[in-house]
Task: structure prediction
Amino acid sequence: MHNQDEAVCRNMLEALNKIRKISSNYSSYREFEEDSVPFDAVMMNFIVIGEMAGKLSEEFKNKYSEIEWRKISSFRNIIAHDYFGIDAKEVWQIIQNKLPPLHELLVKIQ
Result:
């Protein structure tokens, strides 16, 4: 793994851990959506994750192809360019279903 990939993965893991910490205070997407400051903080950390995914080497992304790197970057673009069109239920499902495998991978490779 390139040194840059290591640094990028650390940044992604830090942002992911922030999302997990913030979202763990809520039991549903409706609760989460209603609390705008934490919701906004999570969205910012998704942007960080998407930005970082775009900085990973192709070699790294190919090695860990089970992660949907393109979708991660695309989600960042949706948040950054269509913030008011974000579906909180979809965000909640991503937090619950998509972040755990990414977290597991990032922890494993650190």
Q: What stands out?
A: The CA atoms of residues 47 and 81 lie 11 Å apart.
